[in-house]
Amino acid sequence: MNFEWLESKTYTDDLESICKSISKDATLAQTEAQTADAFQRQLYYHIRLKTGVEINFNQEQPISGGLIHEFGSLKKRSSGKGRLDAVVNDLIIEYKKHSKLKNKKDQEIARNQVKDYLNAMFINEKIKYNAILTDGVKISYFEFIGDHVESTAFKYLEAEDIDRIIKAILTHENKKMIPENILRDFAILDQNVQSITKELAISLYHTLTNCPTEKTNMLYCEWERLMHLSFDDHGKGNDINKRREDLARILDTDNIFDSDKEYKALFTLQTTYSIIVKLIACRAIEKLEYSEIKNYSDLTTLNNLGLQQFFEKLEDGYVHRIMNIGNLLEGDFFSWYSEKEQWEKNPDISKCIKKIIIRVDEYSTFSLGLDLKTFDIFKDLYMSIIPKTVRHSMGEYFTPGWLANYVVSEGLQLQENKNWKALDPCCGSGTFIIALINKIIENNKPKNADDSYILSEEQKARIKEKILDSVYGIDINPLSVLSARVSYYLVLRQLGEVENVEIPIYLGDSAITPTQEIIDGIPCYSYYIENAKKPFHVVLPVRFVKLKEFGQIMTTLQNAVRIGNEETLLLTIADYLTDNEKNAKKLMKSIKLMVKDLIELHRSNWDGIWIRIATNFMYIARLDKFDFIVGNPPWVKWEHLPSTYASKIKKLCNIRHIFTTKGQFGGTQLNICALIANVSATNWLKDSGVLAFLMPDSIMSQDSYEEFRHFYLDYENNERLYLQKIDKWEKPLKPFTCENIVVSQDFNTYYYTKKETDYKKGINVRTISRTKAITGSVNIFV
After folding, report:
1. Looking at per-residue confidence, does 392 or 528 come out higher?
2. HEC letters along 243-305
3. CB burial class (10 A; 0-12, 13-18, 19+) of residue 70?
4. What is the SS3 assignment for 504?
5. pTM score, whole prediction
6. Is 117's pLDDT higher than 80?
7. Picking from 208-212, 378-382, 471-475, which range would have the lowest pLDDT averaged per residue?
8. Sign of CA dihedral 709, 713, 714, 719
9. Mean pLDDT, the chain, as a whole number?
10. Strand partners, 88
11. In which element (H, E) is residue 348 found?
12. E strands of 274-408, at which residues?
């Protein structure tokens, strides 16, 4: 289908013309049939002329099944049948004569009639139709929000309404981009049943194990180093065997018998998941503007070489940088498959990815817009692709959306600043990020707005800007960062075009952040990036890192690295330094050493990700203070951390007043979530800020947490946080499960501020279960 009309310069003028013609004819209409004719004649003519699409307005469609209507001053009466004025594709259009919608009472009767129609259609056909009610002059929209039909207030028909109706008609065959549809199409629900996702995973695993290139081995090696931070190999033998059996069944192999094959299997599944997420992001953006590719649908026409070239550019971030969305998709560990040499070693990759492309092409981000659909869109897909035995080993417990919404609401009650700015330092796939965005939308809608549609474009733009200014996230897992960024983007997309932005979700470690030091009198950020080949030290002036165009500059540096010449890279950096910085001998010595190391990594074919990793860590360094820090940090005991990582934390973090001082207990029982809480509050919490974390119940009782319970941010200056209240979750509302098994460890929500609390008087503890909520006081320091 040729939809170039929708992007043409004449489209806006056509909409105005159609709208005026419909309103003029409808005003003169003497019957509902004439109103319908005024509407349909204009739409049919222009859609057929401009797109070649034949549309059929099915008139007077019968419907039966428990309809309830109001008739004037009479009470509600039930009827067994009714008629719809028109059904075009999945859009129901109900027409009224102009004089029949003049007063609010008649409008309400007509709206209830349409709601009855939609509910009856859902009961009979299990289809959630959209609908419009119009007299050709005014219009109201209807859409299912969950299982309930919601509608907008009547408004005068405008060109934007004609645009919405045309797009609703033309995208009727497309699937909505919602979790249940994505799960249905891309899940690996049965490890023994073939699916397009499983086909891709098997092809990638075959490539990784049999014919990896040098670059593939490099990316896998660095990914494996990172995964050792979260993958718990302390499980029982039976658990490890079960994990490997599950991976082997998905990948149709019987040789996953050691840790190397197990890691490669997991790397394969995470790569498979990342490809699907990236293609969904491309579908949402739609206008790709790459070579001969203009729209997502054009990808289905590419040959093998064209597809490889597109994915290589996609993984390099080019496709999205042209939209000035600098970090939506950027080169990561999972880009290995797109390298030309690797792609050509297994032609099956192209065939499998083509199937995913075609399936994603069935989706559309269009909706009537009655509701801003904010949800963690990829969580269920991830859980279907990564076996539960693997997720359990990684300690992955996904926070339910309802719980995240609850914690955000409760925490913000303690925050007096209504223009708050929030951070989730361990954001995962974005559950708390979405909850924070929900709160922004809720707080910034006009008081009379029940839905997003009646927001003006100016109001939507303000909300979009507010979200970008207010909601930030960090995570150490690149797959989580990818999921959270795309989910964030999909929300913004509902508020209009998304251009010239950085999605404020960053890859980094909230436990170990860049430090600030003074070099030759110049404030600088410093961070040591480890890798298997040649670790290097990133040192950059604070002023440089805080430049608005910092992300674009770092992309320029990445391009300079590829040239492979130290002088070229050094001159490129120097272009952005002040004279004072260039004359600082010690600083320039550090920068030259960094340049030397980066070029050496490039020449050793151990390159492609380091500039982007450095960029993300520098973004974290330049973050301002926040009014609200919220989240569900990982629950990993210190004794289970890799020794090198634990040593690095001890070296870089002030942990003297986090570990217990009692020798017989030691620090091995300390959970890293306590460390992250302390480091996050020290680095990023305002004096008036609130911290709300989900953490183990044992924090309140175990001796190993004795020092943490004092929550010193600065011991010498007696600066600390005080616990304000606790939400204690009891059966059957324990929120964390691994599949259907409730996690045995007890968890609470802890709320901290700097407001001094007299613990001898106790604090509020609310015990929450299905049937009751008890508020009491306890003394936490006996």
Report:
1. 528
2. HHHHHHHHCCCCCCCCHHHHHHHHHHHHHHHHHHHHHHHHHHHCEEEECCEEEHHHHHHCCHH
3. middle
4. coil
5. 0.83
6. yes
7. 378-382
8. negative
9. 83
10. 91
11. helix 348-360
12. 287-290, 293-295, 363-364
